[in-house]
Amino acid sequence: MLEKQTDLLIIGAGPGGYVASIYAAKQGLSVTLVEKEYIGGTCLNVGCIPTKALVKSAELYQELLHLENKGISVVNPEYDMTAIIEQKNQIKDKLVSGIAYLLEKYNVETIQGTASFLDDHLVEINGSEVVRVTAKDIIIATGSKNKHLPIPGIDLEVVLDSTGLLNNTKVPKSLAVIGGGVIGMEFAFIYASLGIPVTVIEFLPRVLPGVDKEFSARLLRYAKQLNIDIITQAKVLKIEAVGEAAIITYERKEKFESIEADLILEAVGRAPNIDGLGLGNTSIIHDLRSGIKVNSKLQTNVHHIYAIGDVTNLYQLAHVASHQGIVAVDNILGKTKEMDYSAVPAVIFTSPQIATVGKTEDYCKDNEISYDVIKVPFSANGKALIMEAEAGYLKLLANPTTKELIGGMIFGKEAEYLIATLTVAIQNHLTWEQLQETIFAHPTMSELIHEGAMGLDHLAIHFMD
Ligand code: FAD
Ligand code: NAI
User: Fold this and answer.
1) In the chain, domain spans
2) Which class in CATH covers the domain with range 159-268?
3) Atom 14 of ligand 2, nearest CA residue
4) pLDDT at 384
5) How far away, in angstroms, is 310 Cα from ligand 1 center?
6) How does pLDDT run across 198-216, given as a tens digit for each residue?
7) Protein residues with CB under 6 Å of any ligand 2 atom
8) Global pTM?
């Protein structure tokens, strides 16, 4: 058994842990990073990056099928599922090896193994050898894991979770998705864009319960066009094998109904991952459902132990985990920093995309917050017409008294890019007047933001506000 001392021990090398490691090492701390499975964590290996690689292939395939409007014809485009998965793996591997290289260059000592607390100060790492580490400060960044339904048939071979589906090379005749949350809807659009009929079974009255009702309602139109059938208010009860496929039985409005599917994705949420971490040997306040409790500085109740990312169960977003990593390290370095969640952007990579930042309209209504709102149709923008994106729109919310932007939402193509400007504006309390005074390049879809800022003042040029 080896013994080690370090300034900072970080457990988990996802976007929370690896970012915190590099940031701390660049500022002179000796950093030991422990990872039990893969550098890059869920996000790089089985989350954000691989799913978006599949989204890109699926969207390109759809574009090829509909190029006539652009004066181009492609005869019988085809795809190869094995090649799609292979290119996804190449992207992921390149990114992961890049991170491993940076960790090494910045002298982060990376140990492969499972970390477990023996008490509030001592952590044991079980890898190729056993290492006991004491550290001045510790950051827990162990992420989250897929939840599973306790129903008969959930272990059948045709039922995969998101990790399993990311490596599936079979082209199924049909896909059923249990859970219409973010993972479920992104995969539904990937498979449907590849021409596979998809049925989504959601427990709640609507899919994407985390976004404004208006967005999930609007997405249904696009889902239908792609042959995605959505069943809401349905409780899945059991799954039974029939040959190589399966029958899913669910209860809906006090009736039992069933559908058959060739392949099933189970995407019913993710829970904080504290498995095997030995938290019972510490005084850290935690529980299985809500993870590790932290204050606004990301500190647990044990003053030298911090927690960041999905394990805190505050947000399940990679960029939040990374930002929390930087704030935690700043606090360890003696700078007093607090997390500010008022401008957290989120992008859902369906087709069209949905992006939000700041307060939503539903939130303002539910909490009686007064706001001014403007909706800018993409059809008012030249570049959006070129991009065949005229069905989308951008929505801005502002404080009527201060004129500060408080919320931004985009439904449509390029939402992932437009949301960045709105995030900068909201984070920095910019007013619609300041946005009006900003020049946006032409012809770009970013002009929609200027148009929205003008519209909040009833001065929109390209549409009737
Ligand atoms: P993780 O990335 O989960 O990393 C935690 C790491 O800790 C893991 O590598 C794990 O092996 C390691 N670990 C756990 N326990 C121990 C231990 N005891 N000892 C040593 N190591 C340990 N977010 C977005 O922002 N955008 C997206 O597009 C997006 N897409 C997603 C798609 C899918 C299919 C999934 C599943 C998630 C997606 N997410 C997305 C969410 C995103 O992946 C997570 O929010 C993010 O990975 C959280 O980062 P983290 O560092 O907290 O944890
Ligand atoms: P989720 O919480 O977003 O959605 C789970 C869905 O499953 C919910 O709609 C829920 O009502 C439904 N559900 C639960 N039990 C059910 C049952 N028995 N039958 C039918 N439906 C049931 O969780 P999801 O989709 O697993 O994603 C986890 C997190 O990962 C997301 O919340 C998000 O933060 C992150 N993520 C982010 C992405 C992005 O930023 N683009 C992409 C994918 C994931």
Assistant:
1) 2-146+271-332, 159-268, 346-456
2) alpha beta
3) 268
4) 97
5) 7
6) 999 999 999 999 899 999 9
7) 149, 178-184, 186, 201-204, 209, 235-236, 267-270, 316-317, 346-349
8) 0.98
Examine domains 159-268 and 346-456 and report if their fold is the same.
Answer: no
Cβ–Cβ < 8 Å for 345, 357: yes
Q: Average pLDDT, whole number, for the chain? A: 97
Report residue 340: phi and psi, to 5°: -120, 115
First to last CA, the chain: 71
The H or E element spanning position 368 is: none
CA distance 45 to 51: 10
Sign, CA dihedral 211-212-217-222, equals negative
CA distances from 428 to 45, 294, 361, 422, 456 (A): 33, 25, 20, 10, 18
Task: Specify the CATH superfamily of domain 346-456.
Answer: FAD/NAD-linked reductase, C-terminal dimerisation domain (3.30.390.30)
The residue to which tokens 């809807």 are assigned: 185
CATH fold for the domain made of 2-146+271-332: FAD/NAD(P)-binding domain (3.50.50)
Residues having CB within 6 Å of any atom of ligand 1: 11-17, 34-38, 41-43, 47-48, 51, 114-115, 141-144, 162, 183, 273, 276-277, 309-311, 316-319, 321
Angle (CA) 402-340-440 rounded to 5° is 55
Higher pLDDT, 244 or 451: 451
| Positions marked active-site | 442
Could you tell me if 186 and 177 are in contact, meaning their C-beta atoms sit under 8 angstroms apart?
A: no
Q: How much is the average pLDDT of 188-200?
A: 98
Quote the DSSP letter at residue 36: S
Largest CA distance in the chain: 73
